[in-house]
TrEMBL record:
Domain of life: Eukaryota
Alphabetical UniProt keywords: Hydrolase
Designated name of the protein: Acid phosphatase
GO molecular function: hydrolase activity, acting on ester bonds
UniProt cross-references to InterPro entries, sorted A to Z: Alkaline_phosphatase_core_sf (IPR017850), Phosphoesterase (IPR007312)
Gene3D superfamilies: Alkaline Phosphatase, subunit A
Keyword Hydrolase: yes
Pfam family, one: Phosphoesterase
One GO term (biological process): phospholipid catabolic process
């Protein structure tokens, strides 16, 4: 589950004791995570498509390009965008009440907005509780707060329990392309061959992605400004199963980086990682396919 909050200065967030001390201690704090640009909408577009795709403002835009929903569906995974105050029925207006289209990126892609079946995956946020109760949560969830709850005019929040390395600070330079690349690796989607193809993958999702027969949802809280960012794993929805042997792990074909999809058997400490690019990929080599991590 991915939740985007609106831009708030990192310093303002961290001044709050609960945000800056309590939750950063529970979460995985990425101190050098940046948005892609300003204003808001291009960041949302970049997150789900690997590029701004010509989006430079918050005005309505219609994009005829591929996005993460295409990758998910091609691999048999389900998705939904739950949006607070969304009126439903594939509404394409700029705003109504406290709902703003600019924060609901899937509606801006014509292969979704012009396809009633796919557009039905954009639903009011109230549907989330209904789907959870019915056991029909999709594999991938993008949650859009409305203008009253998005942190822009209220505050920002971290979610923290249950993640790998709680309390750690990661100073790696990440952005929204890294978040997209991380989702692509979790589900074994490949990539969109844009900025997501080379973005560093965030390592905190090791347990969520790697444990055999694990059922998890990964929840990311982020902001379009330079942000204090943290993540947790929470309620259940099926991800993927990884089969391992006693001493070696084989990189799956769906790994986001092509160098990791060659089927090379890696030792449990990854010392046999085949290429320099792969060796630098902490998700494919040093984390996800580490037998210790897989067994957790």
């Amino acid at each position: 589950m991915v939740i985007f909050l609106e831009n708030e200065d990192e310093g303002n967030v961290l001044e709050d004791t609960y945000m800056g001390t309590t939750l950063t201690g529970q979460g995985y704090f990425m101190s050098n995570y940046d948005g892609v640009t300003h204003p808001s909408q291009p960041n949302y577009i970049a997150y789900i498509s690997g590029s701004q795709n010509g989006c430079t403002s918050d005005s309505n835009i219609n994009i005829a390009k591929s996005n993460v929903a295409d990758l998910l569906e091609s691999k048999g995974f389900t998705w939904k965008n739950y949006a607070e105050s969304y009126p439903g029925n594939c509404y394409t207006g700029a705003n109504t009440g406290t709902y703003y289209r600019k924060h609901t990126p899937f509606i801006s892609f014509t292969d979704i907005s012009k396809n009633s079946t796919r557009c039905a995956n954009i639903v009011p946020a109230t549907q989330l509780a209904t789907d959870e109760a019915a056991g029909t949560l999709p594999n991938f969830i993008f949650y859009t707060p409305d203008i009253n709850n998005d942190g822009h005019d209220t505050n920002s929040i971290f979610l923290g329990k249950g993640i790998v390395g709680a309390g750690q600070v990661d100073a790696t330079a990440y952005n929204h392309y890294s978040s997209l690349a991380t989702v692509e690796s979790i589900f074994g989607l490949g990539n969109l061959k844009l900025n997501d193809a080379t973005a560093p993958i965030i390592p905190f999702v090791c347990n969520a992605a790697s444990a055999t027969s694990t059922t998890t949802t990964t929840t990311t809280i982020t902001s379009t400004n330079k942000s204090a960012t943290a993540t947790k794993t929470s309620k259940t929805t099926t991800t993927k199963t990884i089969t391992t042997t006693a001493s070696t792990i084989t990189s799956p074909a769906g790994c986001a980086h092509s160098e990791c999809s060659t089927g090379t058997a890696l030792t449990s400490d990854c010392s046999a990682c085949a290429t320099a690019v792969c060796a630098q990929d902490s998700y494919c080599c040093a984390t996800s396919w580490d037998s210790t991590c897989v067994s957790e």
